Amino acid sequence: MLAPALRILKDVFGYDSFRGRQAAIIERVASGGDALVLMPTGGGKSLCFQVPGLLREGLTVVVSPLIALMDDQVATLDELGVAAVALNSSQSAEEQRNIAERLRRGEIKLLYLAPERLVQPRMLGFLQQLKIALFAIDEAHCVSQWGHDFRPEYLQLGQLAELFPEVPRIALTATADMRTREEIVQRLHLQNAERFLSSFDRPNIFYRIVPKDQPRKQLLGFLAERKGDAGIVYCLSRKKVDEVAAFLSEQGFPALPYHAGLASDLRAYHQKRFLNEEGLIMVATIAFGMGIDKPNVRFVAHLDLPKSLEAYYQETGRAGRDGLPADAWMAYGLQDVLLLKQMLQNSEGDERHKRLEQHKLDAMLGLCELVACRRQALLAYFDEELAQPCGHCDNCVDEVQTWDATEPARQALSAIYRSGQRYGVGHLVDILLGRDNDKVRGLGHQHLSVFGVGKALAEGEWRSLFRQLVARGLADVDLEGYGGLRLSDSCRALLRGEVNLQLRRDLKPQQAGKTATKSAASQLVRGDERDLWEALRALRRKLAEEHAVPPYVIFPDSTLLEMLRSQPGSLAEMAQVSGVGARKLERYGAAFLEVLNGAVETPTVVVDLRHELISLARAGMTPTQIAGQLKCSEKNVYSLLAEAIGRQQLSLEQALDLPEDLLGEIQDAFLDGEGELPPVAALSEQFAGRVAEGVLYCVRAALQAEFEV
Ligand code: ADP
Ligand code: ZN
Predict the structure, then answer these.
(1) Which residues lie with the beta carbon below 6 Å from any ligand 1 atom?
(2) The whole model's pTM is what?
(3) Using CA atoms, how far apart are residues 241 and 456, in angstroms rounded to an integer?
(4) How far is the centre of ligand 1, averaged over its atoms, from the C-alpha of 397 (Å)?
(5) Higher model confidence: residue 292 or residue 607?
(6) Rounded to 5 degrees, what are φ and ψ at 642?
(7) How large a percentage of the chain has pLDDT more than 70?
(8) Number of other CB atoms surrounding residue 438 within 10 Å
(9) What pLDDT, on a 0 to 100 scale, did the predictor assign at position 653?
(10) What Enzyme Commission number(s) apply to this enzyme (predicted)?
């Protein structure tokens, strides 16, 4: 019954079977019915309208909110040999007329449009003259006023039901909550749509949350095993984003900042680089995310706490869209709690709204301090039940321990109370440990009955305990003051000895260091596979550059990985690899076979090194750092930099960080003579000891490039 759909799946997309509910959805839509599809990121929503679009006669119109998303999908379809175009305002009138002509002639199967464009009367009139196969409304939650992605233009899409009563419509979203779901149905007039609800579990993501100790060091520890992987590091403030990006670059991890404070073209440039290059880390505020369809983001790391589980799920969900192993890692501490509570307090909005936000934050804190399976808790929050602990999160694999903290918790609460409910954790810990310092003495706190009663625990253990008291709402933070702790109503039962308190035992820092990197996800390829893997990636990169598309559009990582493992020896065998459809086989099959047979190993490695070097230089690394990173001599780095400057792939500023006047002096020295630039050798004595000779090569290359154009 689904034979034609399966044939398209295999021939065009190169896949063997449908995933999850794809087959049912495709059947429904291909036969003319409406559908509402709720599927997590990476679940495979695109095929749900692309396959019916190819099965049905006529044009499929896809509504998508962002140009970047459209371009990505059009490029992907183009590579698959499917006639798809996007209409957008950046195209010239000429181009647009051209596209309209092709649409009239029925040469195009899929048309991508922004909602505001689709609902223009002229556009609707134009489409009414054509044979329309299907309307697909992607990111359908944009119609919801309650979500943060609300797009007013989506509200007008409801009229499609009346204007095109015969045309089936499919709405898709990865936002699952009940309220959004009902709004989509109401506003898009999808009362007759069959609903397809998938599990929102992301089984390939490994979750880990560690207590924050020395966050940068902890982050480096986490990244150490993930060199060369692309990922996102989320921070709360712009300043921190800039600092962390610089820090990572210095440490040999090419990283770029992204936040709303950067000029918009720079932001766009960084985003583009993140999509097009491999192994780049984006350090970002939450301004970065929507519209990032890069499938091979291998990790998402949080250095600050998201303000709700919804946000946490969304942000971590950007990892591992391709279904390959990926990591969600977070470092979290008391400071995060204080900061978020403070922001909440100072935010606009009425009391009801604040209470709601407070509940959301509490749920997030609950996940952090949880002792049981994180995935079970996360899914339960979204009303989904996972029968067994997942075995694929830190709590499942580390066997977290709890301890009876009833007595120390009472001591801590008592210290808060007796010191007048106004001091922060540092001072409270000093009291409990009996530290006889100036502040304690000045306040006379050495006379408190709790002074020195807590010597059985170490400072770190006390801090962990205070953090958990606040996270569980047993102590409050005085937000008007200076973050002093207060008792809360809910701590009474504990103080009276009516209940016991079991707390999570934080791993010791050195232990946490050891296990922080432990996850099923670390490393897609084994050591002995690395060379061939890099060679395959280098070829993909080269093809991607030639076609001006991101590498994953040529082949996703999962396809390269399967090539690596199954080692096809012929085109026929290559056709069996998942993700290799007819068109790609024809275009790229032979080239990848050559690499697999080892025919082109050496040159690709060189290409690889150059490419890497350019990325690193652009990310702001110095030649010395680059040499360390690429494990080659500095001399070598300088000559490759000079070469890249000569080819105008790098600017001199990107390659070197020279003081203005020194640069001027060197340039003058080169330009002193008449005619030809003198060779570097002629100047090296003059600048000996002041700059490396390699610097002269770079400056000369820049001058030469400038004069040649
Ligand atoms: P979503 O839009 O739901 O986030 P995508 O449509 O981008 O997900 O699909 C995620 C990835 O899974 C893509 O690389 C896609 O090619 C791949 N994929 C989708 N369906 C299948 C399938 N049936 N078999 C193999 N890979 C698939
Ligand atoms: Zn688990």
Answers:
(1) 15, 18-19, 22, 39, 41-47, 295, 321-323, 556, 578
(2) 0.79
(3) 39
(4) 29
(5) 292
(6) -60, -40
(7) 95
(8) 7
(9) 87
(10) 5.6.2.4
**In the predicted model, is pLDDT for residue 619 greater than 90?**
no
Average pLDDT over residues 591-603: 77
Contact 599, 536 (CB under 8 A): no
Kindly report which listed range (174-178, 523-527, 604-608) carries the lowest average pLDDT score: 604-608
- The ligand that comes nearest to the alpha carbon of residue 580 is 1
Residue 366, Cβ neighbours under 10 Å: how many? Answer: 15
Q: Determine the number of helices (DSSP H) and then strands (DSSP E) in the chain.
A: 35, 17
Q: What is the pLDDT of residue 291?
A: 66
Q: DSSP labels for 148-178? A: TT--GGGGGGGGHHHH-TTS-EEEEES---H
Work out the number of other CB atoms within 10 angstroms of the CB of residue 457. 18
- Please give the distance, rounded to the nearest whole angstrom, from the Cα atom of residue 198 to the centre of ligand 1: 14
If one residue of 19, 25, 82, 139 were mutated to test the ligand 1 pocket, choosing by the most ligand atoms within 8 A of its CB, it would be 19
Contact at 8 Å (CB) between 109 and 60? yes
Instruction: State the pLDDT at residue 604.
Output: 46
Average model confidence (pLDDT) for the chain? 89
Q: Compute, in angstroms, the gap from residue 649 CA to the centroid of ligand 1.
A: 34
> What pLDDT is stored for residue 103 in this prediction?
97
CB under 5 Å of ion ligand 2: residues: 373, 375, 389-390, 393, 396
Task: Ligand 1, residue 322: give the atom nearest the CA.
Answer: 11
Using the mean position of ligand 1's atoms as its centre, give its distance from the Cα of residue 48 in Å.
10
Residue of 41, 46, 69 best suited for mutating to test ligand 1, as the one with most atoms within 8 Å of CB: 46
Structural domains in the chain, sorted by start: 2-197 (3.40.50.300), 205-398 (3.40.50.300), 402-504 (1.10.10.10), 527-708 (1.10.150.80)
Q: Which pLDDT value is given to residue 71?
A: 87
- C-alpha 19 – ligand 1 centre gap (Å): 8
Q: What DSSP string describes 596-644?
A: HTTTTHHHHHHHHHHHHHHHHHHTT--HHHHHHHHTS-HHHHHHHHHHH
* Cβ contact 307:357 at 8 Å: yes
Phi first, then psi: what are they for 434, rounded to 5°?
70, 40
Q: Relative to the alpha carbon of 12, which ligand is closest?
A: 1
Angle, helices 582-596 vs 67-79, to 10°: value is 80
What spacing in Å lies between the alpha carbon of 22 and ligand 1's midpoint? 10
Beta carbons within 8 Å of 62's beta carbon, 6+ residues apart: 49, 70, 73, 110, 111, 112, 113, 136, 138
Cα 205 → chain centroid: 12
Structure tokens given for 390: 């997942």
**Which one of the ligands is nearest to 519 CA?**
2
Q: For residues 542 and 531, give the distance between their C-alpha atoms in angstroms, rounded to a whole number.
A: 16
Cβ–Cβ < 8 Å for 450, 414 = yes
Residue 367 CA: distances (Å) to CA of 107, 307, 337, 621: 52, 12, 13, 37
Q: Which two tokens stand for residue 530?
A: 């690395």
* Angle (deg, nearest 10), helices 693-708 and 660-671: 70
User: Is residue 74 within 8 Å of 84, Cβ to Cβ?
Assistant: yes
Question: What's the distance, CA 112 to chain centroid?
Answer: 24
- In order of 29, 76, 326, 681, the CA distances from 256 in angstroms are 42, 25, 20, 36
**Whole-angstrom Cα distance, residue 618 to residue 178?**
45
Report d(CA 59, CA 32) in Å as an integer: 14
Beta bridge partners of 503: 403
DSSP-derived secondary structure for 478-491: ETTTTSEEEE-GGG
Closest ligand to the CA of 397? 2
Instruction: Report which protein residue has its CA nearest ligand 1's atom 20.
Output: 44
